[in-house]
Amino acid sequence: MPVEVGKPVEGGKPVKELHLNAYAKVNLTLNVGGARSDGYHEIESVMHTIALHDSITLREAGTGVEVLVTNSEVPNDQRNLVVRAAQLLREAFGVERHVQIELVKRIPAAAGLGGGSSDAAVTLLGLAQMWKLRLDGRELLALATKLGSDVPFFLEGGAAVARGRGERLAFLPPLPTTWIVLARPQVAVTTEWAYRQLNPAAIAVRPDTSAMVDAVKREDVRDVGRLLCNVFEDLIISSHPIVGELKSRVLRGEAYGAALSGTGPTVFGLMANEAAARKVADELQVLPDVDVQVTRTFAEER
After folding, report:
1. Which residues are catalytic?
2. What is the tens place of the pLDDT at every residue in 146-185?
3. Does residue 111 have a known ligand-binding role?
4. Do residues 177 and 162 both lie within one domain?
5. Of 294, 297, 296, 300, the residue nearest 20 (C-alpha)
6. Is 3 among the domain residues?
7. Are residues 71 and 181 in the same domain?
8. Of 171, 187, 220, which one is at a domain's C-terminal end?
């Protein structure tokens, strides 16, 4: 039945505190088209959430919107998408209740793993529950799109093809558990810089999105690894050769494939098994200024 957007849910005990996880993602494919009239680019990307996550606690406390960040230098002001998500929801539905948000960061910032976007999506979902708001999917999607191109995907997570700015989503069955190595060199790459530098007309190799979708549906992880492709990879490697070195080192292990995630600088490898993932991780951890983690594909039911 239709649900009235923004209407408080009747009855039930008020929610005073919620504990939630915000999962990272990798881009199995990332393709970019021309610039749009709104300044964004058309994208097409097959994405999948992974087990690496931030932890978010929402509690009725403080004054207005307060964010406490631990384990990270991530700011707690308007630069943080969590703050903007909470304020957007308060303003959209006239909510006057105060909220304190505790954010424990494990997903590295500006790494191509979508940490900030995932935090924002989970904040929207959690506060809608805490404040007993009824939002239909379209309204939630509209709010998420205002916050960032990847935020809509994280409302659901799992596996999906994202198109447009990222708001047009076709969800796919998630992959079976697949072990992943993440290697992030300590170099700075911003999304804005990467898009400014990229010339879509000069891209020589583009992802085969339809083939990747088929491989994901067939749960053929070998094929998924073979089809990994990101149009930003050559650009990022030319500016930061360490990215190419990390990819080569991952591929020398028992890897189905390796690629850049997002605009980087994180490289990820789909590994044959957990032992292979940990072996490659051990080899990479001896390199200076490279952060290495072992994780796996993950899909949470929401």
Report:
1. 25, 150
2. 999 999 999 999 999 999 999 999 999 999 999 999 999 9
3. yes
4. no
5. 300
6. no
7. no
8. 171
- Chain centre distance of CA 228: 17
Helix (H) / strand (E) containing 183: strand 179-185
Q: Encode pLDDT of 46-66 as tens digits.
A: 999 999 999 999 999 888 899
Q: How far apart, in Å, are the Cα atoms of 245 and each of 87, 89, 241, 259, 264? A: 42, 43, 6, 12, 14
Would the annotation count 108 as a binding residue? yes
Which tokens belong to 36?
């749009």
Asked whether residue 112 is marked as a ligand-binding residue, the answer is: yes
Consult the annotation and say whether 147 binds a ligand: no
Q: 46 and 179 share a domain?
A: no
Contacts 24+ apart (CB under 8 A), 210-218: 212/28, 212/29, 212/46, 213/46, 213/161, 213/172, 216/28, 216/46, 216/48, 216/159, 216/172, 216/173, 216/175, 217/172, 217/173
pTM of the entire predicted model: 0.92
**What are the residues facing 59 on neighbouring strands?**
17, 100
Amino acid at 131: W
Bridge partners, 139 (sequence order): none
Least confident of 200-209, 243-252, 257-266: 200-209
- In this structure, the answer to whether residues 123 and 201 fall within a common structural domain is no
Mean pLDDT of 297-302: 81
Q: Which of 225, 222, 224, 164 is nearest to 37 (CA)?
A: 164
